[in-house]
Amino acid sequence: MMAESTIEKEDVKPLKVSKNWMVAFIMFGMYASFGMSWMGIVPLFQEIEKALSIGHSQGSWLISVISLVKSIFPIVAGIMAAKLGLKKSLRISGVLILTGAVIPWLPSYPAWIAGRFMFGMGGAMWVTLMGAVTMQVFSAKQRPLINSINGVAVNVGVILALWFTLPLNQILGWQNTLSLYSILSGVFFLLLWFFFNIENSENTSKTKSSVSYTYTLKLPVTWLISLAFTGPLALYLVFNTWLPIYYQEVFNISKPQTMQLMSWMNLWGVPAAIGTGVLLQYFKKCKVFIAIAALLLPVVSFAALNTSNSSAIAVLLPLAGVGMFLGVSPLITLLQNQKNMNPTLIGMILGTMFSVTYILSSLAPGLVGYGYDLHMNLGTLLSLCCVLAFSPAIALFLPENDK
Hints:
Elements: H1 2-8, H2 17-39, H3 45-52, H4 56-72, H5 74-84, H6 86-97, H7 109-137, H8 143-151, H9 153-172, H10 174-195, H11 205-210, H12 213-217, H13 220-250, H14 255-282, H15 286-305, H16 310-326, H17 328-336, H18 343-373, H19 378-386
């Protein structure tokens, strides 16, 4: 109870409106450029594998190591922010993200893995702290929109990387291309250094020291919000990993057409998330959107698996993308609106949430692969994964506190 009373007394002064949107721009831009560096290596796998003299399985770890870090480091990020404050923690995160500029020039595979691990630490810190920054800087009315924009930042970066990496490679070469993405992160780091100034965020040591991480582990909201996020992310990873193989092998849909269908699923999530954030500013019932997401995603996903009509799939997959991102802003906003929440507490809760979510969801594609290797029906395995998409409904147990 001491922690709760101290939290309520924290003196937080929001930034002026003109600076608020610079903060939003910095938070979005840094994480989007992180996404470009993270997934920008996918179109360049052949060049990288040749340069490092490695095989496909080793090359895949250059991606997987980021997911691994994002499953274990957010908790540390939440604790660090509670001790050092948001501004200092974000600067440390930014420095780690900037290591991406050096990685393409490292001479060995172990050095790449170590570099990508540090790079991933920066991204894990950044995404963990975005919700805390939003609560500190923005009013309750503005938060749903900012939460939705933050929620699609890395996806925008991934899409941009898949679009532009190959053309840039032909002009600049693969090493310069990957470094360019981190140079873009450097621009946002400079903006962070000179324009990001949260008043009193570094002067609340009494509050920071009194709220322990173990306290957040005792809160039901920590675990309800963690489980609520897990299902859609697990299905997102499963579909992006296995759905192209399923469509090609089972329905004989060509690879180019399959890639186009998958891109629509990923793209439609972006306007869906942002549109939800806009609507939440005026219709302040997070649970309505969460319930819709919990029903829409499993239904349309199951339907997309059980039709071979490419025209129907072209409609169902974008709807699945909508369902995957529809609940992002409502879930974060619902968490921020819980009683006695403040940026310090939010940072630590989100640290647990991201760790739990990434650990559990990252198991799903591997389990599907394991079952497929045992000659289980791939359609059945993917259909079972659709059940996971009901998980946002878990958050309906939380009270709806309008602010």
